[in-house]
Write a structure and sequence with these properties.
The complex is a heterodimer of chains A (261) and B (202).
Chain A (H helix, E strand, L loop, with lengths): L12 H4 L2 H16 L4 H17 L4 H21 L2 E2 L5 E6 L2 E5 L2 H25 L4 H10 L4 H30 L8 H31 L16 H28 L1
Antiparallel strand pairs in A: 1-3, 2-3
Helix pairs in contact in A: 2-5, 2-9, 3-5, 4-5, 6-7, 7-8
Chain B lengths: L10 H20 L6 H14 L3 E4 L2 E4 L3 H8 L3 H16 L7 H24 L7 H28 L4 H10 L1 H21 L7
Antiparallel strand pairs in B: 1-2
Helix pairs in contact in B: 1-4, 1-5, 2-3, 2-4, 3-4, 3-5, 3-6, 3-8, 4-5, 5-6, 6-7, 6-8
The chains are: A mainly alpha (261), B mainly alpha (202).
Protein backbone atom coordinates (compact mmCIF):
# COMPACT_ATOMS: atom_id res chain seq x y z
CA UNK A 1 0.00 0.00 0.00
CA UNK A 2 2.94 2.32 0.57
CA UNK A 3 5.30 1.41 -2.24
CA UNK A 4 5.53 4.67 -4.10
CA UNK A 5 8.54 3.27 -5.98
CA UNK A 6 6.81 0.15 -7.25
CA UNK A 7 7.02 1.42 -10.85
CA UNK A 8 10.68 2.45 -10.61
CA UNK A 9 11.71 -0.52 -12.76
CA UNK A 10 10.15 0.90 -15.93
CA UNK A 11 12.17 2.69 -18.56
CA UNK A 12 11.25 6.21 -19.63
CA UNK A 13 12.96 9.59 -20.13
CA UNK A 14 11.96 10.48 -16.57
CA UNK A 15 13.37 7.22 -15.19
CA UNK A 16 16.69 7.85 -16.96
CA UNK A 17 16.90 11.42 -15.62
CA UNK A 18 19.49 11.90 -12.86
CA UNK A 19 17.57 11.77 -9.53
CA UNK A 20 19.35 14.80 -8.08
CA UNK A 21 18.42 17.13 -10.93
CA UNK A 22 14.99 15.52 -11.17
CA UNK A 23 14.17 16.26 -7.55
CA UNK A 24 15.40 19.86 -7.75
CA UNK A 25 13.64 20.64 -11.05
CA UNK A 26 10.26 19.22 -10.10
CA UNK A 27 10.48 20.86 -6.68
CA UNK A 28 10.92 24.23 -8.39
CA UNK A 29 7.95 23.48 -10.65
CA UNK A 30 5.73 22.62 -7.67
CA UNK A 31 6.62 25.88 -5.93
CA UNK A 32 6.08 27.86 -9.10
CA UNK A 33 2.50 26.59 -9.52
CA UNK A 34 1.71 27.53 -5.91
CA UNK A 35 2.45 31.18 -6.62
CA UNK A 36 0.13 31.32 -9.64
CA UNK A 37 -3.31 32.87 -9.24
CA UNK A 38 -4.58 32.79 -12.82
CA UNK A 39 -6.96 29.95 -13.70
CA UNK A 40 -5.83 29.62 -17.34
CA UNK A 41 -2.12 29.50 -16.47
CA UNK A 42 -2.82 27.00 -13.70
CA UNK A 43 -4.64 24.76 -16.17
CA UNK A 44 -1.69 25.06 -18.61
CA UNK A 45 0.70 24.02 -15.84
CA UNK A 46 -1.56 21.12 -15.00
CA UNK A 47 -1.37 19.99 -18.63
CA UNK A 48 2.44 20.18 -18.41
CA UNK A 49 2.32 18.10 -15.23
CA UNK A 50 0.04 15.54 -16.89
CA UNK A 51 2.53 15.39 -19.76
CA UNK A 52 5.37 14.64 -17.33
CA UNK A 53 3.28 11.93 -15.68
CA UNK A 54 2.45 10.50 -19.10
CA UNK A 55 6.15 10.50 -20.08
CA UNK A 56 7.04 8.68 -16.88
CA UNK A 57 4.78 5.74 -17.89
CA UNK A 58 3.47 5.32 -14.33
CA UNK A 59 -0.03 3.80 -14.65
CA UNK A 60 -2.77 6.42 -14.37
CA UNK A 61 -4.90 4.13 -12.19
CA UNK A 62 -2.12 4.03 -9.58
CA UNK A 63 -1.91 7.82 -9.52
CA UNK A 64 -5.68 8.27 -9.35
CA UNK A 65 -5.95 5.93 -6.38
CA UNK A 66 -3.39 8.08 -4.55
CA UNK A 67 -4.93 11.41 -5.56
CA UNK A 68 -8.09 10.32 -3.72
CA UNK A 69 -6.67 11.52 -0.38
CA UNK A 70 -5.84 14.97 -1.66
CA UNK A 71 -9.31 15.17 -3.06
CA UNK A 72 -10.83 14.24 0.31
CA UNK A 73 -8.91 17.06 1.97
CA UNK A 74 -9.73 19.68 -0.63
CA UNK A 75 -13.38 18.68 -1.13
CA UNK A 76 -14.70 20.51 1.98
CA UNK A 77 -13.13 23.70 0.64
CA UNK A 78 -14.78 23.21 -2.72
CA UNK A 79 -18.18 22.60 -1.12
CA UNK A 80 -18.07 25.11 1.73
CA UNK A 81 -16.13 28.01 0.22
CA UNK A 82 -18.73 29.39 -2.25
CA UNK A 83 -21.37 29.59 0.49
CA UNK A 84 -21.52 31.59 3.68
CA UNK A 85 -23.76 32.16 6.68
CA UNK A 86 -22.35 35.59 7.32
CA UNK A 87 -24.12 37.51 4.58
CA UNK A 88 -22.63 39.32 1.62
CA UNK A 89 -24.14 37.37 -1.26
CA UNK A 90 -27.42 36.14 -2.66
CA UNK A 91 -29.64 34.41 -0.11
CA UNK A 92 -30.51 30.97 -1.45
CA UNK A 93 -31.90 28.99 1.48
CA UNK A 94 -33.38 29.44 4.93
CA UNK A 95 -32.55 26.90 7.63
CA UNK A 96 -34.64 28.08 10.57
CA UNK A 97 -33.10 31.33 11.75
CA UNK A 98 -29.93 30.90 9.65
CA UNK A 99 -29.77 32.07 6.05
CA UNK A 100 -27.40 30.47 3.56
CA UNK A 101 -25.80 32.86 1.07
CA UNK A 102 -24.17 32.13 -2.26
CA UNK A 103 -21.09 34.30 -2.67
CA UNK A 104 -20.85 34.33 -6.46
CA UNK A 105 -18.83 32.89 -9.29
CA UNK A 106 -15.44 34.31 -8.19
CA UNK A 107 -15.50 32.10 -5.11
CA UNK A 108 -16.27 29.03 -7.23
CA UNK A 109 -13.24 29.95 -9.37
CA UNK A 110 -11.13 30.41 -6.23
CA UNK A 111 -12.17 26.99 -4.91
CA UNK A 112 -11.41 25.40 -8.29
CA UNK A 113 -8.01 27.10 -8.30
CA UNK A 114 -7.20 25.58 -4.90
CA UNK A 115 -8.30 22.15 -6.07
CA UNK A 116 -6.38 22.15 -9.37
CA UNK A 117 -3.21 23.49 -7.75
CA UNK A 118 -3.29 20.92 -4.94
CA UNK A 119 -3.94 18.04 -7.35
CA UNK A 120 -1.17 19.18 -9.72
CA UNK A 121 1.38 19.49 -6.93
CA UNK A 122 0.63 15.97 -5.76
CA UNK A 123 0.58 14.58 -9.29
CA UNK A 124 4.14 15.86 -9.77
CA UNK A 125 5.31 13.78 -6.80
CA UNK A 126 4.99 10.65 -8.95
CA UNK A 127 7.52 11.58 -11.65
CA UNK A 128 9.69 13.06 -8.87
CA UNK A 129 9.85 10.17 -6.37
CA UNK A 130 8.06 7.29 -8.10
CA UNK A 131 10.58 6.89 -10.91
CA UNK A 132 13.63 5.87 -8.86
CA UNK A 133 14.05 3.29 -6.12
CA UNK A 134 13.75 4.75 -2.62
CA UNK A 135 17.35 3.90 -1.68
CA UNK A 136 18.58 5.74 -4.77
CA UNK A 137 16.34 8.72 -3.96
CA UNK A 138 17.84 8.78 -0.46
CA UNK A 139 21.34 8.68 -1.93
CA UNK A 140 20.32 11.54 -4.22
CA UNK A 141 19.27 13.55 -1.17
CA UNK A 142 22.75 12.98 0.20
CA UNK A 143 24.12 14.24 -3.12
CA UNK A 144 22.04 17.38 -2.60
CA UNK A 145 23.80 17.94 0.76
CA UNK A 146 20.87 17.56 3.10
CA UNK A 147 21.89 17.08 6.77
CA UNK A 148 23.25 13.56 7.22
CA UNK A 149 21.22 12.85 10.38
CA UNK A 150 18.04 13.69 8.53
CA UNK A 151 18.96 11.34 5.68
CA UNK A 152 19.70 8.51 8.10
CA UNK A 153 16.32 9.08 9.73
CA UNK A 154 14.63 8.81 6.34
CA UNK A 155 16.39 5.55 5.61
CA UNK A 156 15.65 3.96 8.99
CA UNK A 157 12.10 5.24 9.28
CA UNK A 158 11.30 3.96 5.81
CA UNK A 159 12.38 0.48 6.89
CA UNK A 160 10.54 0.56 10.20
CA UNK A 161 7.28 1.67 8.62
CA UNK A 162 6.98 -1.73 6.98
CA UNK A 163 8.17 -3.61 10.07
CA UNK A 164 5.69 -1.76 12.27
CA UNK A 165 2.71 -2.14 9.97
CA UNK A 166 3.39 -5.89 9.68
CA UNK A 167 3.71 -6.22 13.45
CA UNK A 168 0.57 -4.15 13.87
CA UNK A 169 -1.39 -6.56 11.66
CA UNK A 170 0.00 -9.52 13.64
CA UNK A 171 -1.08 -7.86 16.87
CA UNK A 172 -4.56 -7.22 15.50
CA UNK A 173 -4.86 -10.90 14.57
CA UNK A 174 -3.77 -12.09 17.99
CA UNK A 175 -6.14 -9.67 19.72
CA UNK A 176 -8.98 -10.88 17.52
CA UNK A 177 -8.18 -14.53 18.17
CA UNK A 178 -8.53 -13.82 21.90
CA UNK A 179 -12.02 -12.46 21.35
CA UNK A 180 -11.19 -8.75 21.35
CA UNK A 181 -13.52 -6.59 19.33
CA UNK A 182 -12.94 -2.97 18.49
CA UNK A 183 -15.73 -0.91 20.02
CA UNK A 184 -15.99 2.77 20.72
CA UNK A 185 -15.36 2.37 24.44
CA UNK A 186 -12.71 3.37 26.95
CA UNK A 187 -11.85 -0.29 27.48
CA UNK A 188 -11.15 -0.84 23.76
CA UNK A 189 -9.06 2.28 23.55
CA UNK A 190 -6.92 1.49 26.60
CA UNK A 191 -6.38 -2.14 25.56
CA UNK A 192 -5.34 -1.21 22.05
CA UNK A 193 -3.09 1.56 23.41
CA UNK A 194 -1.35 -0.91 25.73
CA UNK A 195 -0.93 -3.40 22.89
CA UNK A 196 0.61 -0.70 20.69
CA UNK A 197 2.86 0.38 23.57
CA UNK A 198 4.16 -3.18 23.91
CA UNK A 199 4.73 -3.34 20.17
CA UNK A 200 6.75 -0.12 20.32
CA UNK A 201 8.87 -1.39 23.21
CA UNK A 202 9.59 -4.56 21.23
CA UNK A 203 10.41 -2.62 18.06
CA UNK A 204 12.60 -0.18 19.95
CA UNK A 205 14.70 -2.96 21.48
CA UNK A 206 14.98 -4.65 18.12
CA UNK A 207 15.95 -1.41 16.35
CA UNK A 208 18.59 -0.73 18.98
CA UNK A 209 20.14 -4.20 18.48
CA UNK A 210 20.07 -3.83 14.70
CA UNK A 211 21.68 -0.40 14.93
CA UNK A 212 24.52 -1.61 17.18
CA UNK A 213 25.07 -4.60 14.90
CA UNK A 214 25.34 -2.20 11.98
CA UNK A 215 27.72 0.08 13.89
CA UNK A 216 29.96 -2.83 14.83
CA UNK A 217 30.15 -3.81 11.15
CA UNK A 218 31.41 -0.40 10.16
CA UNK A 219 28.24 1.64 9.51
CA UNK A 220 29.16 5.33 9.68
CA UNK A 221 26.00 6.95 8.41
CA UNK A 222 26.86 7.40 4.75
CA UNK A 223 24.45 5.90 2.23
CA UNK A 224 26.11 3.10 0.31
CA UNK A 225 24.57 1.73 -2.87
CA UNK A 226 26.05 0.10 -5.94
CA UNK A 227 24.46 2.83 -8.02
CA UNK A 228 26.77 5.70 -8.98
CA UNK A 229 25.41 8.98 -10.34
CA UNK A 230 26.75 10.29 -13.63
CA UNK A 231 25.50 13.50 -15.21
CA UNK A 232 24.85 13.39 -18.94
CA UNK A 233 24.01 16.41 -21.13
CA UNK A 234 20.44 15.07 -21.44
CA UNK A 235 19.96 15.48 -17.65
CA UNK A 236 20.77 19.19 -17.91
CA UNK A 237 18.50 19.59 -20.96
CA UNK A 238 15.60 18.06 -19.00
CA UNK A 239 16.30 20.38 -16.11
CA UNK A 240 16.37 23.43 -18.40
CA UNK A 241 13.02 22.40 -19.95
CA UNK A 242 11.24 21.93 -16.60
CA UNK A 243 12.69 24.95 -14.79
CA UNK A 244 12.38 27.00 -17.98
CA UNK A 245 8.66 26.19 -18.06
CA UNK A 246 8.31 27.17 -14.40
CA UNK A 247 9.91 30.56 -15.11
CA UNK A 248 8.04 31.05 -18.39
CA UNK A 249 4.65 30.58 -16.74
CA UNK A 250 5.50 33.31 -14.24
CA UNK A 251 6.64 35.69 -16.96
CA UNK A 252 3.29 35.03 -18.64
CA UNK A 253 1.49 35.75 -15.36
CA UNK A 254 3.35 39.04 -14.85
CA UNK A 255 2.80 40.21 -18.43
CA UNK A 256 -0.93 39.45 -18.24
CA UNK A 257 -1.29 41.54 -15.06
CA UNK A 258 0.67 44.32 -16.79
CA UNK A 259 -1.84 44.32 -19.65
CA UNK A 260 -4.73 44.65 -17.22
CA UNK A 261 -3.03 47.67 -15.67
CA UNK B 1 -6.92 17.02 8.08
CA UNK B 2 -4.56 18.84 10.43
CA UNK B 3 -2.19 19.02 7.50
CA UNK B 4 -2.63 22.00 5.24
CA UNK B 5 -2.73 20.98 1.57
CA UNK B 6 -0.97 22.88 -1.15
CA UNK B 7 -2.52 26.08 -2.46
CA UNK B 8 -4.71 26.91 0.52
CA UNK B 9 -2.80 29.26 2.79
CA UNK B 10 -1.17 32.53 1.70
CA UNK B 11 2.36 32.22 0.20
CA UNK B 12 3.96 34.44 2.89
CA UNK B 13 2.56 32.09 5.57
CA UNK B 14 4.19 29.15 3.79
CA UNK B 15 7.51 31.00 3.77
CA UNK B 16 7.09 31.82 7.45
CA UNK B 17 6.47 28.12 8.15
CA UNK B 18 9.57 27.05 6.20
CA UNK B 19 11.85 29.51 8.03
CA UNK B 20 10.58 28.77 11.56
CA UNK B 21 10.48 25.00 11.14
CA UNK B 22 13.97 25.01 9.58
CA UNK B 23 15.21 26.80 12.70
CA UNK B 24 13.51 24.29 15.02
CA UNK B 25 14.82 21.40 12.91
CA UNK B 26 18.39 22.70 13.00
CA UNK B 27 18.16 22.96 16.79
CA UNK B 28 16.73 19.44 17.05
CA UNK B 29 19.39 17.97 14.76
CA UNK B 30 22.15 19.68 16.74
CA UNK B 31 20.81 18.04 19.92
CA UNK B 32 20.65 14.62 18.27
CA UNK B 33 23.29 11.89 18.57
CA UNK B 34 23.81 8.97 16.27
CA UNK B 35 22.68 6.63 19.10
CA UNK B 36 19.25 8.30 19.13
CA UNK B 37 18.51 7.13 15.60
CA UNK B 38 16.90 3.74 16.44
CA UNK B 39 14.49 5.22 18.99
CA UNK B 40 13.70 8.20 16.79
CA UNK B 41 13.06 6.03 13.75
CA UNK B 42 10.75 3.65 15.59
CA UNK B 43 8.69 6.52 17.03
CA UNK B 44 8.65 8.29 13.66
CA UNK B 45 7.45 5.13 11.96
CA UNK B 46 4.77 4.79 14.65
CA UNK B 47 3.60 8.38 14.11
CA UNK B 48 3.53 7.74 10.38
CA UNK B 49 1.58 4.48 10.64
CA UNK B 50 -0.88 6.05 13.09
CA UNK B 51 -1.58 8.84 10.63
CA UNK B 52 -2.77 6.26 8.12
CA UNK B 53 -5.65 5.26 10.39
CA UNK B 54 -8.57 7.42 9.36
CA UNK B 55 -11.88 8.10 11.03
CA UNK B 56 -14.82 9.28 9.03
CA UNK B 57 -16.19 12.59 10.33
CA UNK B 58 -18.96 14.07 8.22
CA UNK B 59 -17.86 14.61 4.62
CA UNK B 60 -14.17 14.37 5.45
CA UNK B 61 -11.86 12.19 7.49
CA UNK B 62 -9.52 12.91 10.37
CA UNK B 63 -6.58 10.86 11.57
CA UNK B 64 -4.40 10.55 14.66
CA UNK B 65 -1.68 13.19 14.94
CA UNK B 66 0.42 11.77 17.83
CA UNK B 67 2.56 14.89 18.15
CA UNK B 68 1.96 14.96 21.89
CA UNK B 69 3.11 11.35 22.05
CA UNK B 70 6.27 12.27 20.13
CA UNK B 71 6.90 15.15 22.53
CA UNK B 72 6.49 12.93 25.59
CA UNK B 73 8.80 10.20 24.27
CA UNK B 74 11.41 12.23 22.39
CA UNK B 75 11.51 15.68 23.99
CA UNK B 76 13.40 18.18 21.83
CA UNK B 77 14.06 15.45 19.26
CA UNK B 78 10.33 15.33 18.49
CA UNK B 79 10.89 18.10 15.92
CA UNK B 80 13.11 16.04 13.57
CA UNK B 81 10.72 13.11 14.14
CA UNK B 82 7.66 15.10 13.07
CA UNK B 83 9.46 16.75 10.15
CA UNK B 84 10.49 13.35 8.78
CA UNK B 85 7.02 11.95 9.35
CA UNK B 86 5.40 14.89 7.52
CA UNK B 87 7.81 14.67 4.58
CA UNK B 88 7.14 10.94 4.33
CA UNK B 89 3.39 11.40 4.56
CA UNK B 90 3.62 13.92 1.77
CA UNK B 91 5.82 11.92 -0.57
CA UNK B 92 4.82 8.32 0.17
CA UNK B 93 1.16 8.81 0.88
CA UNK B 94 0.32 12.12 -0.82
CA UNK B 95 -1.09 13.44 2.42
CA UNK B 96 -0.70 17.18 2.98
CA UNK B 97 1.22 19.36 0.57
CA UNK B 98 4.74 19.78 -0.75
CA UNK B 99 4.96 23.55 -0.39
CA UNK B 100 3.32 23.45 3.04
CA UNK B 101 5.78 20.97 4.58
CA UNK B 102 7.34 23.84 6.54
CA UNK B 103 4.05 25.12 7.88
CA UNK B 104 2.78 21.64 8.74
CA UNK B 105 6.03 20.84 10.52
CA UNK B 106 5.64 24.01 12.56
CA UNK B 107 1.99 23.17 13.36
CA UNK B 108 3.01 19.74 14.67
CA UNK B 109 6.45 20.50 16.09
CA UNK B 110 5.80 23.56 18.23
CA UNK B 111 2.88 21.90 20.14
CA UNK B 112 5.04 18.77 20.57
CA UNK B 113 7.66 20.86 22.34
CA UNK B 114 4.98 22.40 24.55
CA UNK B 115 3.65 18.92 25.31
CA UNK B 116 7.17 17.89 26.32
CA UNK B 117 7.44 20.90 28.65
CA UNK B 118 4.05 20.13 30.22
CA UNK B 119 5.02 16.51 30.78
CA UNK B 120 8.45 17.29 32.22
CA UNK B 121 7.20 20.05 34.51
CA UNK B 122 4.34 17.81 35.63
CA UNK B 123 6.65 14.92 36.42
CA UNK B 124 8.90 17.24 38.39
CA UNK B 125 6.03 18.45 40.59
CA UNK B 126 6.09 17.10 44.09
CA UNK B 127 2.60 16.01 45.09
CA UNK B 128 1.05 12.83 46.28
CA UNK B 129 -0.43 11.04 43.27
CA UNK B 130 0.31 7.49 42.22
CA UNK B 131 0.05 7.69 38.42
CA UNK B 132 1.50 11.07 37.60
CA UNK B 133 2.69 9.95 34.17
CA UNK B 134 -0.83 8.93 33.12
CA UNK B 135 -2.26 12.27 34.17
CA UNK B 136 0.41 14.43 32.58
CA UNK B 137 0.79 12.17 29.57
CA UNK B 138 -2.87 12.60 28.72
CA UNK B 139 -2.72 16.32 29.39
CA UNK B 140 0.29 16.63 27.08
CA UNK B 141 -1.32 14.46 24.38
CA UNK B 142 -4.60 16.35 24.38
CA UNK B 143 -3.10 19.83 24.57
CA UNK B 144 -0.65 19.13 21.73
CA UNK B 145 -3.44 18.24 19.28
CA UNK B 146 -5.62 21.11 20.49
CA UNK B 147 -2.74 23.54 19.90
CA UNK B 148 -2.07 22.12 16.42
CA UNK B 149 -5.70 22.57 15.47
CA UNK B 150 -5.69 26.10 16.90
CA UNK B 151 -2.59 27.03 14.91
CA UNK B 152 -4.20 25.65 11.75
CA UNK B 153 -7.39 27.63 12.47
CA UNK B 154 -5.44 30.86 12.99
CA UNK B 155 -3.51 30.29 9.74
CA UNK B 156 -6.72 29.71 7.78
CA UNK B 157 -8.35 32.80 9.26
CA UNK B 158 -5.29 34.95 8.52
CA UNK B 159 -5.38 33.78 4.90
CA UNK B 160 -8.88 35.06 4.35
CA UNK B 161 -12.26 35.66 5.97
CA UNK B 162 -13.86 33.34 3.39
CA UNK B 163 -12.39 30.43 5.37
CA UNK B 164 -14.52 31.09 8.49
CA UNK B 165 -16.96 28.23 7.84
CA UNK B 166 -14.21 25.77 6.85
CA UNK B 167 -12.25 26.64 9.98
CA UNK B 168 -15.22 26.07 12.28
CA UNK B 169 -15.79 22.74 10.59
CA UNK B 170 -12.13 21.65 10.92
CA UNK B 171 -12.00 22.60 14.61
CA UNK B 172 -15.16 20.64 15.48
CA UNK B 173 -14.04 17.61 13.47
CA UNK B 174 -10.95 17.36 15.68
CA UNK B 175 -12.64 17.23 19.08
CA UNK B 176 -12.83 13.39 19.00
CA UNK B 177 -9.16 13.24 17.97
CA UNK B 178 -8.17 15.36 20.97
CA UNK B 179 -10.04 13.03 23.34
CA UNK B 180 -8.66 9.85 21.75
CA UNK B 181 -5.09 11.12 21.79
CA UNK B 182 -5.33 12.31 25.39
CA UNK B 183 -6.35 8.80 26.49
CA UNK B 184 -3.85 7.12 24.15
CA UNK B 185 -0.86 9.20 25.25
CA UNK B 186 -1.81 8.82 28.92
CA UNK B 187 -2.03 5.03 28.69
CA UNK B 188 1.22 4.91 26.71
CA UNK B 189 3.06 7.06 29.23
CA UNK B 190 1.79 4.91 32.11
CA UNK B 191 2.81 1.73 30.33
CA UNK B 192 6.28 2.99 29.40
CA UNK B 193 6.92 4.25 32.94
CA UNK B 194 6.35 0.69 34.20
CA UNK B 195 7.83 -1.39 31.39
CA UNK B 196 10.54 0.67 29.70
CA UNK B 197 11.26 4.05 31.30
CA UNK B 198 13.94 4.74 28.62
CA UNK B 199 11.14 5.41 26.17
CA UNK B 200 9.96 8.46 28.10
CA UNK B 201 11.82 11.71 27.97
CA UNK B 202 11.79 13.11 31.48
Amino acid sequence: MLEIDQYSGLSSPIHRWDPRLKIVSIFVLIFSIMLLYDLILVVITMCFAIMLVFLSKIPISFILSRLKWVFIFVLPFLIILPFTFLGGGIAIANLGSITLYYRGIEYVVYALLIMIKALTAVMLIFPMIGTSRIDITIKALEGLHLPNKLIQMFAFTYRYIFVLSDEFTNMEHSLKSRGYRNRASLFSLTSISKAIAMLLVKSYERADRVFYAMRSKGYTGTVTTLHEFTLRPQDWVNMIIVIGFAIFIHIAAISSTMEVL
Amino acid sequence: MVHVSDAIVAPWLMGFGWVLSAGLLAYGLAKMNMEDIPKLSVITAAVFVASLIHFQVGPTSVHLVLNGFAGVTLGVLSVPCLVVSIIMQCFLFQHGGVTTIGLNALNMGAPALIAFLIFRTGMGLNFDFQRKEVLFGSLAGGIAVALSVMMLAVELLITGSEFTEVTTFVVFAHIPVIIIEAIFTGVMAGFFAKVKPDMLCI
